[in-house]
Structures are given as C-alpha cells and as structure tokens.
Design brief:
The protein is mostly helical. About 60% of the residues lie in helices and about 0% in strands.
Length: about 90
C-alpha cells in the first residue's frame, strides 16, 4: 500500500527505513499491550512516538560521534529508560 504524497518522483517511498522502524516499534508495543505488559493507562501512540524518537536520535548521534562519545550517549539513554538519568544511581 502506498500513501499519496509520500513518494519520490521515481515512485520510491520517502524514508522507507524510518517507516519500517516505526512499524516494528508499533508491533512490539502492540504486542506488549496485548500481553498486558504495559502499565495501565499507557498511551500506546505516545509510547511508540517516544521509542521511535529515541531510536532516531541514537541513529543520528551514531553517525556524528566518535566511539567514546557515542558510548556516553548510550549510557545516558539507558539511564533515561531506567528512570535514573537525574539521580545518583542509588535507589
């Protein structure tokens, strides 16, 4: 299925990799919701948007940073996901 207005002149989809990534994330979050693995009241669309934004940001940073700086970026992302980014690590 193709969406009108989302093609280049040669007929290829714009940003097909990003659309595929978003589709995969959506499937994973939908599966988690179906299994009851998401907390009550989770906005599935918001969760997909947040994960997709994080993945895109990490991809962009990987292209622009050296290995040490990217490792620090990944550590920060892990802290963000664990809810410990702005703590001293003790809970």
């Amino acid at each position: 299925m193709r969406v009108v207005g989302h093609e280049h002149r040669n007929g290829r989809l714009k940003h097909p990799g990003l659309k595929a990534l978003r589709g995969i994330i959506t499937e994973i979050v939908d599966d988690a919701r179906a299994r009851g693995a998401l907390p009550a009241g989770t906005d599935v669309d918001a969760a997909v948007n947040a994960i997709h934004a994080l993945a895109r940001g990490l991809t962009e940073r990987a292209a622009a940073l050296g290995p040490d700086a990217y490792a620090a970026t990944l550590d920060s992302a892990k802290g963000l996901l664990r809810g410990t980014l702005f703590t001293d690590g003790r809970q």
